[in-house]
Design a protein that fits this description.
The chain has four helices and ten strands. The protein has 187 residues and is an alpha/beta fold. The protein is globular. The termini are far apart. It binds S-adenosylmethionine (SAM). The site of S-adenosylmethionine (SAM) has 23 residues, from β3, α2 and β5.
Length: 187
């Protein structure tokens, strides 16, 4: 069972799944994945607090597919999407629903405690990418200069304001947003 408050989602043992201090990071990531604007078909994996989803919607993409596995988060996602005709929900673990995806102009990947994340980075992301290039961002290794699996087109160092107790997963006052362009053949 997750617990929800105004600023965070936490697991039963108190681990932070998502926190509102990440908002500027989400905004920067969404700017990149929505680079193709209204023509874009965007895939988002992990709805969480819906912070990124709101930013993606503000770019008015052609389509916005959201995959989410947690039943309680799915309730919020369904409520949030009620008035959004460009949203398609894929329910469940992304890894078990690969047949429901197509290719996308933009992909934002932000899951939690995901044992298949390495498979996404090493294989799957290429199969979901467009020949012309897919704008991709992932919440992963945000504190290193270079992303281990990809050559970012650019990297932005973002300073963030957070309370130490709410950020054991980031021990600096900045994170890096790695902006990547993926093609089916770039791995
Ligand atoms: C860090 S939160 C996402 C935060 C989101 N980007 C936001 O702006 O609020 C991670 C989300 O991914 C979901 N999730 C975790 N593992 C998943 C998986 N394998 N497939 C789909 N969703 C997953 C969690 O339930 C949670 O809602």
């Amino acid at each position: 069972m997750l617990s929800f408050d105004e600023n965070s989602i936490r697991t039963e043992n108190g681990s932070v799944v998502m926190h509102s201090w990440e908002t500027p990071v989400m905004q920067e990531m969404c700017k990149w994945v929505c680079k193709r604007g209204a023509k874009a078909d965007v895939l988002e994996i992990g709805f969480g607090m819906g912070i990124a989803s709101d930013f993606i919607q503000s770019h008015r993409p052609n389509s916005h597919t959201i995959c989410e596995s947690d039943p309680e988060v799915l309730v919020n996602l369904k409520e949030w999407s009620k008035d959004k005709s460009n949203v398609t929900i894929v329910e469940g673990d992304w890894y078990k629903n690969l047949d429901k995806f197509t290719t996308y102009h933009g992909i934002l990947f932000d899951t939690f405690a995901d044992m298949n994340i390495e498979k996404f980075k090493k294989e799957i992301v290429y199969t979901l990418s467009k020949d012309i290039g897919t704008h991709f961002c992932i919440w992963d290794n945000m504190t290193s200069d270079v992303h281990p699996n990809f050559k970012p087109e650019s990297t932005k160092k973002l300073f963030v304001e957070k309370d130490t107790k709410d950020s054991p997963y980031v021990d600096t006052d900045y994170v890096y947003v790695h902006k990547m362009l993926i093609t089916p053949t770039s791995n």
